[in-house]
Amino acid sequence: MGRMADGEGNDQSRLRAALARLERTWSRLGLAIADAAAPGLDEEVVRSTLSVLDLEAPAELVTWFGWHNGASTSPYMREALPGWWLLTLDECVDRFLSHRGFGRPEGWAWVETLFPIMAMDAYRLLAEVRPGSPTVPIHVGPRDDEPHGPYASSLLELIEFAVLLMEGPAVTMNEEHGVLALDRSHPAVKTRAMLF
What we know:
Layout: H1 8-29, H2 33-36, E1 37-39, H3 43-52, H4 59-67, E2 68-71, E3 79-81, E4 84-86, H5 89-106, E5 114-120, E6 123-128, E7 138-142, E8 148-152, H6 155-167, E9 171-174, E10 179-182, H7 187-191
Antiparallel strand pairs: 1-2, 3-4, 4-5, 5-6, 6-7, 7-8, 9-10
Helix pairs in contact: 1-4, 1-6
């Protein structure tokens, strides 16, 4: 692996710390994903998988899939952020190829660079993969239409923001349904309403 740019190693350390904090929050809230999250992937698996798609693997995505490769349960038991489910790398690749399949004939350039990392019914959290960039701005997009955003400048920013929400009063556990309940009137939630 090549030498990390100044700050990149620090950002990846911060991302790993934020992901560990997120995992502790899952346990505290009693989310099923705390027990269902699958082990992460080797860095080379992530890099080679993205390479086959003509994508350079940004450090944030290598860290993301090295942390957990989705979960071994139904999508509705994979809630990792309010409303968003963890996906395996293979599921992300399938969605990426599906986006390419319908988007290329439409002339949508974004289908070449926006890689799905999480899902919510017909919506996707999409990481913008840019050559030479260790970070991935985060967009939100419907399954069969153009995306919106970016709503976070990086995966690190998204995870740190989500953890702050989940640790505070804006997010609680809906015990009856086993999912997170989000207070949409909370000022912090209103600042990024499209993300959650």
